[in-house]
Amino acid sequence: MKNLAYCEHCMSNKEYKLQRNKKTSVLNNEEISFEAKEAICEACGNEIFVSDICDHNLNVLYEKYKIRHNIISIMEIKNILTKYSISNEELSLLLGWKSYTLKRYLNGDMPLKDHSNVLKKIYESIDYYSIVLQTNRDKLDVISYSKSRQTVRNLLNAEIIEVKMEAVIKYILIRGEDFTDLTLQKLLYFVQSFYYMFTNTFIFEEDCKAAIDGPVYASIRERYRIFGYKEVHRGILSNDKLTLDDFERNIVESVIKFYGCYSGKIIKQMTQNEAPWILSRTKNTCSTDLDEEDFGIIIDKSLISEYVISVKEKYNILNLLDIQKYSTDLFNKISM
Where's the Antitoxin SocA-like Panacea domain (predicted)? Predict the structure, then answer.
C-alpha cells in the first residue's frame, strides 16, 4: 500500500517515504531530544505533514519527558488495568478522581505529578492496591469489586516463590535466558532430585505437581501466567540477594550440562519415564482424560527420594559427572 499525503511544495498528493532523525523539542521549558519519524516527499524531497506521524512524535516526546521526571507511562497504566482486572473508569472512581481522568491519560494527556505517584505505587505494589481497593470498595459496584479482589488474591499467591528456587532460576537464566517454561520446570525438578541424591535433603520446600506435561512447580507456572515471562525474569535477574553456595551451583550446573542440552519436549519425556511422575498420576487419578492445567496431583517427596536413591545405586553414581550416565540412558530409552 502506497503512502500518500499532500505536499505543500508540489501542491498535490504525493508518495512519501519514512525516515528517522534525531530531533530536539521544548516541552515545559525543557529541551528534550528524541528519535522522530519524518515523511519525505518522493518527488521533491521536502518534509510533508502527516497527522498520524505528528501524533506519534508527540507521544514519543511526552514519553521521554515522563521518563525524565519519573511520570507513569501509558503502557504502565494499561498494565495496571490488565493486572488488576479493572477498567480505567472504575480505577479513576476508586481513586476519587473524575471518571474520565485515566481515559485522558491513556489518550496522551500528561498525568498530574501526584496522580502519577499514586499510580506508580499501585503499579509496583499489589499490597498497596489491595489497601486502596478495600478502603474505597463502596465506590465500585459489587461485581467490579469482587472481580478485582479475586485477581488481587491470585496475584498475592503467585508472588510467593521461595528464595532458593528463585536463586536456582536466576542461575539457569544467566546460563541461558532462552530456556522455555517447559524446560525450566523440568530442570528445577532434576535439581531437586539430584540435590537429594547427594545430600539426603531437598533444596526446595514446595511440592512438585504431576501435571499432564510432566513435573511442574505450580507457583512458578502461575506467576508466569499472571505477570509474564519478561517481568518475572527481570525481577529475578535484578535481585542481587539471590545466591547459591558452591555445591548448589555445581548441582545446577550439572543439571544444565546433562539435561539442558535437550529440547523441552525431550526432557519432558524423560521425566514422564520416571517412577515418581508415573506413580503419582496412576495413584491419584481414575481417568487418563485430564485437563492440561491440572496441577492438583502432588508428587510426594518420598517417591522422589526412594527413586533417586535406587538410580544412584543402579548407575553407580559417585560424583556429579556420573549423572551423565543416567541422563544418557533416559534419552536412549525414549529414542528407541
Answer: 184-277
Q: How far apart are CA 123 and CA 108, in angstroms?
A: 18
pLDDT band of 292, cuts 50, 70, 90:
very low
List the grid coordinates of 8. 505543500
- When the pLDDT of each residue in the chain is averaged and rounded to a whole number, the result is 88
Query: How much is the average pLDDT of 58-78?
Result: 85
- The secondary structure of residue 9, as a DSSP letter, is T
User: Which strand ranges, in their side-by-side order, compose the sheet holding 47-48?
Assistant: 4-7, 12-27, 30-41, 47-48
C-alpha distance from residue 31 to each of 26, 28, 34, 37, 73 (Å): 4, 9, 10, 18, 19
Which is it for the CA torsion 32, 34, 37, 43, positive or negative? positive
**Domains of the chain from N-terminus onward:** 4-68 (3.10.20), 74-158 (no CATH), 163-335 (no CATH)
Global pTM reads 0.61
313 class by beta-carbon count within 10 Å (0-12 exposed, 13-18 middle, 19+ buried): exposed
Query: What percent of the chain stands above pLDDT 70?
Result: 94
Q: Which residues of 39-72 are buried (b: 16+ CB within 10 A; e: fewer)?
A: bbbbeeeebbebeebeeebeebbbbbbbeeeebb
Model confidence over 104-138: pLDDT tens digits?
999 888 899 999 999 999 988 888 999 999 999 99
